[in-house]
Amino acid sequence: LSLKFGDIGNLKGLVIRLLLSTSYSQLSVQSWFSLHRLQLLYNHSVQATFNATGIHAPATYSFHCEHVSSLQRYDALLVPSSANDLSQLWEVTFIDFQIQGFNVQEGHFAYARDCASFFSPAILMGLVMSLILLLVLAYALHMLIHLKSLDRHYECKTSPAYFAQMKDSDMGDEKEPLRNSGNESYELRNQQFGKIYI
């Protein structure tokens, strides 16, 4: 597939040649097309050659990518074929690139297979954050399940009764003998201590 710029100033002699091929895949049981090589020709001479990586789609589909470039910041789907040729001097970038080499109907692209991988950085970050949240939730549930009531460990304990000590001299005034069935008993007259029988 050759793209000629025609009579456009300095680009008059520039041609972009895309070398495509089809192959049958046993795994997916269908034919696929692939872009193998991109050549830049100027005045009928090859100026640069780039090998294409990862540009393929089913033969009944088209291929779409936001950037197809030789620059690393765009994932470098175009790689110079040799370190010795002039490809190192060229920087090629296609923006909103879409191609369909075969089975084109009525001049329109078929459904596009996008170059964005399933595990893009944004998707990976979302998966990592989801995993962290699930771990926190599992830890919280684990703590709730194993939480024990405080009543099992701490019984309600009352402090022992406290009675003020009295001297023997005071006891004589405060005590009054009680007549009972043969036992010696005394009753405290001071009501603030209550009644105690001995």
TrEMBL record:
Q: Name one Pfam family in it.
A: Ac45-VOA1_TM
**Has the keyword Glycoprotein been applied to this entry?**
no
Q: Which UniProt keywords apply?
A: Membrane, Transmembrane, Transmembrane helix
How is this protein positioned relative to the membrane? Single-pass membrane protein
**Which parts of the chain span the membrane according to its record?**
118-141
Q: Where is the major localization of this protein?
A: membrane
Please name the GO terms that the record assigns under molecular function.
Answer: ATPase activator activity
Can you name a GO cellular component term?
cytoplasmic vesicle membrane
Q: GO biological process annotations for this chain's record? A: regulation of cellular pH
Supply the InterPro entries for this chain: Ac45_acc_su, VAS1/VOA1_TM, VAS1_LD
Q: Where in the cell is it found?
A: Membrane
Task: Name all V-type proton ATPase subunit S1/VOA1 transmembrane domain ranges.
Answer: 117-154
Please report the stretch or stretches of sequence annotated as the V-type proton ATPase subunit S1 luminal domain. 1-102
Entry similarity comment: Belongs to the vacuolar ATPase subunit S1 family.
Q: Which PANTHER family match?
A: ATPASE, H+ TRANSPORTING, LYSOSOMAL ACCESSORY PROTEIN 1-LIKE (PTHR12471:SF3), VACUOLAR ATP SYNTHASE SUBUNIT S1 (PTHR12471)
| Name assigned to this protein | VAS1L protein
Q: Which organism is it from?
A: Pycnonotus jocosus
